[in-house]
């Protein structure tokens, strides 16, 4: 029976809510709000949208996730990678900042929300598992580089463009002559300050005798300090008249109620992007939610997370926002700051709401270079070169998938990158299972064990070839199995039996079944009998349901030892008795 | 060292060629030539090309394959499925029968030849293995139905069109009012005659006292008899004046030398089709070549087959032909008729050459309805409904892939069909391996074996959970493994150790490695130690190359029994001694 609690996980935690929970949630909300204000402005700019859209996307979506999501500490809102994907999806369709562009962003949020809810209805949460870790890591790292370089234009105050690394670099090179010196000074100073805050401020404050909690709060407030100081400097010295681009006047007041238009042409153009944004957002969100939940022995539900994120995106589409998801860094901050329940997110939403109601005029003279600096400092932590080396060292196939994803993201775009990575990791997996390990085995004297003749000192029967195959048998390796077996038989003229040992065969598909029939037929024609041994229960059940045993003339032995004892009793008896 | 023999397998058989070989080859060549004349005209018509193109594609390509291919008995030339794919590739680009259409067919043959040779250079012959048998079977059956129905218009003498089943049926329904009665009579008579020849003529002739070889030759000549009789009737009674469409005047003489134009726009439009034609042609050809080679204990080389078929297609492009491959029925006939070497194919080419030089005027009054009947009778044997039922009965996943392929081929087209089938069979394979079988195991008393506690009477340790996973660990099942393990641990409060038994784990990819680390970390945090057992040699080698064991606090046991003996000696000792 479907219970209301299943639909609305908020009822779970609301029941036991108390003063301690509130204290933790309120502290976390203050810290996250301070962190989120500049981030939401900056990520909206990265997505090619007016800055207030970022604020709008940080209010109702947080409340919606709080009601429907299962993670207690996930911080939902605009994030870097999804903002980049939004820009690259809408860029070819509309002029950045135009009305059509904003409308497309709303449509993208609505589509993404509907896709996530539909996936939940179809119980497709497991789909997150089909994106391999190396592909995600390659995608995130390359996106980080792309995002950081995309912000260089704001630091230089030039109108560079481009969605790919070569385009960006070419455009930067072509327009760098127009760089604005005051902008560059502000931008570089902001980056230096933000890195210093991130690395050195907290230990410094601790040494000055501040409590760790206060030191942490002040360190997290670094970007807000940069915003206030730089906006004041621009206002004080009239730097905007000297070519320093600023955020400009933002509307004050509640987020607008918006109803995205249902334009089928637009929707079909955005469909692939919406699917990828949903998938990537879901995977990013679930990764961090699971990590955090595990720390407190909580669990999250994959399908209910789909509902939570879907609700957040639909809420974003209805209140002038753009696609949102659970952010990595922000969720960790929320967790570390003591958030106990999703009510922390709702309090954060309240903080952002108050900002849009009262504080937007403060951002009018905020230099875009400072927002660019905020993004650069945030995304460079996504770039994980050590992870690349580690993955290459462990597995060339995984390393290749990771590198290909990253290279295609940088050179061609985010969507082709992720499609390439997924396709390649599937192909590499097929490749890996298409040439299974096959070992000729013999009896370990004095035991009933059969081991690889190349690795162990074993007894081989001259008339019986024992072959172990270490993989499920399916279409991609069926022919390989045939070829290898024929080769082995061709070099052993005295052979009378072949026993295929199947302890690692977890299934046999229809193609492999035909291959087994072909092998049996061909070996029989050559005067060799073909047998199976150690076939697993479920595999045997299925073989018995087919007409395989109508034609199969060989035997199926429970163990390889029984096979040898039946087919070559003399050799087996000697091996059994050997020391 | 590359030897000339590797490049030119013909040197292999030419050395030992003798009178016996020649007798076999010559007989086979006569029979195949007689079979090939109407087929080549008919398949060219199916491909939307002038009939003589079919003859041209049956001369030099056979010689080229004979020089470079490794199958002794494969009969290369125009085949039904590739002709259908040619029509569906060129149909949207040019008007059937126009100069542009013929030029596109030449380009398609050249591209297909170059793709096959390139695949050989990259040693991609194994790619044939990635098309599963059910997908190929579904594709071939659906193509057979599509081809048969596409010929209905020739039997009715109406101008119906369409590339998909719904289009064809709609168009047939719309134009059936224009059906030509004499054409219909000829067509139905031809079908009835051809089915009778196929089923009943050979036994009849045998009963009349003819030798089996002569009876066989006469039965194979059935289509030629239909051609001669129907063409004579049309000429005698002037049926073409009554609306019976005929082949018309064919050019007489050598095949033209043609140099396909290199038109990059055209080539990029045809690229996907050329790749699929190459793949499907290769797979069809290799399937029959391997079957026939196996009967005589010969072997074919996948990569050298690519060269042989590539050379045949390039030869076709240079002599006014269109894409060719090894035909199923024709190769079986060649083999059964006694062909010993590829010289039989060269003699067949000579027969077709003589036909183009001297006999083409005979086909002027040949009704198209008879060619249609030839095709229908040939392709209906491709439709394998029993195979569908058999596959569904064995495996729902394979049955679904097969049915989806067939349905998409019929409803949307041949290319989407094969792409869908391949994609679906990959997804189903992933799905199958993404939820591996996991069993909690216990010790079989009195032995060192560990078996599933649900299937066997075993001893379980209260403190040690023994879990066996029956699949390689990789990205698609890494999270499933985590979830299942956490669930198992959550319901066993007294637990102190978890041992993951890995005898069926053939590899662990980077994603699964991270999952193992996460599992160890999380179980440790819950006060449970995590261990591995029965890890295979190659998997262990790779784990040791990574930094996995820098963090891993558990142990790796050689066997599950050793693990239990170390972690819970009391329970193990009791189980060891139990009867």
List the keywords.
homodimer; two-stranded antiparallel sheet; mainly alpha; 64% helix; 2 domains; 6-stranded mixed β-sheet; Transcription Regulator spoIIAA; 579 residues; 27 helices
Care to describe what's here?
The structure is a homodimer of 579-residue chains. The first copy, chain A, contains 27 helices and 8 strands. In chain A, helix 23 links the parallel strand 6 (497-501) and strand 7 (529-533). The termini of chain A are far apart. Chain A has a 6-stranded mixed β-sheet with strand order 4-3-5-6-7-8. Chain A is mainly alpha-helical. Chain A has 2 domains: 20-426, no CATH class; 438-577, Transcription Regulator spoIIAA (2-Layer Sandwich), CATH 3.30.750.24. In chain A, 64% of the residues lie in helices and 5% in strands. Chain A has helices spanning 4-7, 10-14, 19-46, 51-56, 60-68, 80-90, 99-121, 133-150, 152-156, 165-175, 181-207, 212-220, 222-237, 264-295, 302-318, 328-336, 343-359, 368-379, 385-394, 396-411, 414-434, 475-490, 510-525, 537-545, 548-551, 560-567, 569-577, and strands spanning 76-77, 325-326, 438-443, 450-452, 464-469, 497-501, 529-533, 556-557. In chain A, 52% of the residues are buried.
